Amino acid sequence: MPGTAVVIGGGIGGLGAAIGLQRKGWRVTVLERAAEFRPVGAGLVLQANGLRCLDALGLGATVRERGRRDVSAGTRTSAGRWLAHIGAGELERLLGTPAIGIHRAVLHDILLGALPAETVLTGATVESVTADGAVTWHGPDGPGRAQADLVVAADGIHSTARTALFSAVPEPRRIGVTAWRGVTPVWAGDLDVAVSWAPGAEFGMVPLTDGRVYWYGAVNSDQSAGDVRSHFSAWHDPIPALIASTETVLTDELACLDTPLTSYVRGRVALLGDAAHAMTPHLGQGANQALEDAVVLAALADQPQGLREYDRQRRPRSQRVAQASRTVGRFGQQLRNPAAVAARNALMRLTPPRFALRSMARFAGWQPPSLD
Predict the structure, then answer these.
(1) Which residues, 6+ apart, have CB-to-CB distance to 97 below 8 Å?
(2) CATH fold of 4-71+100-171+258-330, please?
(3) Which of 124, 172, 190, 344 lies 20 to 30 A from 263 at CA?
(4) pLDDT per residue over 160-196, tens digit each?
């Protein structure tokens, strides 16, 4: 029977797990370190697998209304020459579900609004987690403690729970890439969802439903990061203008869990999302995989040996996706050798779009369990 659950972390994966568990009858408390939720962050693309998870959580229709359905997409050189191009709706025709571009803050607001206000405790810094479900924290009202039947560690790449319970796991590894992210004001004109490449560099753009554009840029860190404008000022239109119009730009040194965990579970504690399998962004699957974790955990957690089954189902798939994303990065944005870049670009121009679609479908075609 469902009991009490503590979810550590109020991000996309943690809130998704909390919603799913409540739908299954669990009494849930979410502990979020931030004192308040602010509309920060950038955009993301919800692929078919992530949208299906939101359908299972009862939120798919709302997300579709507030996100932008996929438009034509593809890959270009920094001069603007197309290497590959997929027409609008092609992926939806293949998978039956569109991809959705959405601001991360909008998605977070939808998830947060699906939970009773008293479920989420902000300003709660978790201090200890044990395998038997004991969690201590310090919050606005002082120290707190809970003895839970289930603890969901959704506290990100630098997870407190993972550090406490999986001490043999190496720390997250920087991959040698500096990345910038931003969202423009309302943008005039239509844009493709596009990624552009130069040796050791990448720029991507995703139109959002409210007329803004989410963009990101990335360069190998040995290129002296500096200001984002210095790296992309000579790239094709509208890249320089997108950057120039953006007031707030976030900067990160990309990292991932390069050493796969041998389990996502210790006793009553289950790792979820970046805490379990922090991956590079090159496949755009990070948030989608966290939502997969959330729905599978909610579906299984009240069953005998449910956490063991969660680990059996989620660890192989999420680690395959993480490894594939790492490989895509090495042969995409991180590739620098001129001969290798020329060979890759030629191969992409010669590859029929249907093969690229099938490759994407390997990851986006996943179907979640029902929570009804």
Answers:
(1) 48, 51, 52
(2) FAD/NAD(P)-binding domain (3.50.50)
(3) 124
(4) 999 999 988 888 999 999 999 999 999 887 788 889 9
